[in-house]
Structure formats: structure tokens, C-alpha cells
Amino acid sequence: xxxxxxxxxxxxxxxxxxxxxxxxxxxxxxxxxxxxxxxxxxxxxxxxxxxxxxxxxxxxxxxxxxxxxxxxxxxxxxxxxxxxxxxxxxxxxxxxxxxxxxxxxxxxxxxxxxxxxxxxxxxxxxxxxxxxxxxxxxxxxxxxxxxxxxxxxxxxxxxxxxxxxxxxxxxxxxxxxxxxxxxxxxxxxxxxxxxxxxxxxxxxxxxxxxxxxxxxxxxxxxxxxxxxxxxxxxxxxxxxxxxxxxxxxxxxxxxxxxxxxxxxxxxxxxxxxxxxxxxxxxxxxxxxxxxxxxxxxxxxxxxxxxxxxxxxxxxxxxxxxxxxxxxxxxxxxxxxxxxxxxxxxxxxxxxxxxxxxxxxxx
Length: 362
Prior knowledge:
Blueprint: E1 2-7, H1 15-27, E2 31-37, E3 42-44, E4 47-52, H2 59-78, E5 82-85, H3 91-99, E6 103-108, H4 112-116, H5 125-143, E7 148-151, H6 154-157, E8 165-167, E9 191-195, H7 204-212, E10 218-222, H8 228-235, E11 241-243, H9 252-258, E12 261-264, H10 279-285, E13 290-293, H11 296-302, E14 306-309, H12 314-326, H13 328-344, H14 348-361
């Protein structure tokens, strides 16, 4: 079966799309292409990456040309049996490909109506609510025409009714820790690590504020910074903070292993309250204790794996860091529990079988 994953939003080395889904399908014997806007055409780990340029100009022009006209043109050339798309703006492409007789999978990474309510480029709260409502209705309607739906978390799945619907959680690919290359990091203090894209609504400013008060500890940041003000603040130098830039997915565990605590303090916006971010599971795989936001869903999911804080309160975050760093028995017990859970359940090696089973049904 010839398969094409398509995206105009994500990078070609996206952890979920490339490293997890595409490579898993190659390992299962499928002929896999990844069509990606802004990517570089080449073959990597058996995946044929087909890159094309993003259109320049405003958001609407980019969506019309890049996410519709250009994508359809390339999809026709590839002529796959199954198209697996990852961005809500590709829904019309998916519908077109379905009309042309192809099998189409919609991979829904986010609760998109909830995500719209937090978009900073939509200034009016009323406009956000209207767009969110309209997109919710449209996404539910369009989903009926696709051959399968994949959701990244359970709260997304309950929005849809479909005979071929699976939840494919973003658990990490567990490496062989005995073969990880040792990296040189100048570490003079116990450290907490945050891995992932950095934005204001992911609580980074509050994290920076917290570590300004923690001279005995330091914060390590790994990942892209997508907002100008936040980028300027971090790159100009923050007290007790080290920024390591963007790190490839397979290198992340090297840094987490050297840290003492994993931390994730997303702010309580609608799309975060029920999210299953990848990073806590990566921290768990490395046997690290965690500090995370005090969302009810996270408390129910992670239980004793973490300490929970008010993510909007830098003082609460700082107190939790001090408490966990100074209580080594608790930190060790928490870390051992987390590593055990990662090996038994929270890993991509086990989760990926759902993806293979779905493709076999198709």
C-alpha cells in the first residue's frame, strides 16, 4: 500500500508525524511518503520526503495556495492509495482526495474549536467564539466522509462518531538508554528541564519568573520559541536559565537524563485543560519526578507521578521546585514509579500497534 502523510504546518522532522507514524509504517512494510510545506526533498529512514515552498503573503493567501492548490497538485503526482493529513486547513484537500477515490485519514492533533479560542491573532473574543462554533460544526460534518479518524487524546475523540476512530496517544519512543551518547553540559546547579515549543500560553513567562527567585537551581529550556517578545526575553539572558535551542527528537533524552526534574506548567486555556502533552511521558521514561499544572485531568491521569502547582503563580512554582529538589527520597520514589509506568504502558512501541491495526483494516 502506498501511503502519503501530508502537512503544511508541521516540520518534516515532526516527532509525531515523522519519527512515530511514518517510520512505524515503513517498519510495517508500507511505501511511505511525507509531503511537507517548507521541507527538503530527500529520503530519510525509508521515508520519501517531498518538500515544496510555502507561498509568501498573508495567512489567507498561504492557506489557499499552499494548503490547497499546491498540495493537491503534488498529491496528484504522488498518486498514493492512502492520504493521511495532519492539519485542519487540509480538510478541503482531504475531501477532494476522497472525491477522487482515495482513502483518507484525518489525524486530529488538537481540540481545534478549543484551540481557536486561544489564538492570539484573532483579537475579538466574539469572533473567536463564532469561528470556534462554525469550525466545530464543519469539522464534525467533514469527518463523516473520511475513511478513518485518529485523535491524539481521548477528549478529542468524544467529539466524533465514526466506525474507524482510534486514539493514538503521543507517547515517547523509548530509546536504548545504555547506548545514548553522553553530552557535555556545564551543570553547576540542580536543574529542572522544559522541552517543547515555547509560547506565552504554555506558561514560560511564569517559569522564568519562578527561577529568578531560585538562585540554588536552574531551568533548562529546549525547543523552538515562536513569539518575538518571549524569544527576546530568553535570548537576552534570564537569571538561572539556560536555553539549548531546538534539539532533534532522538537527542532530547540526553538532556532530560542530565536534569533532575521535568517541568510543564501550561496555562489554563481551553485547549490545555484536557491535553496529553508528550513531554511528561518523556520525563517519565527517563525516571524523572515531574512538576506540572494543577488541571483536574492531569491530576487524574498522572496521580502520584507529579507535584501540581498553580501555573499562573510563579511563587507556587518556585516553592514546588524547592520542595522537590530538597526531598530526594520523594523525588527518587516518584522517578522510579514514572520509569516503571513508561516501560509498561506509556511508550510508542506499544501504542503504535493501534496505527498498524488501523492501516490493516483499511
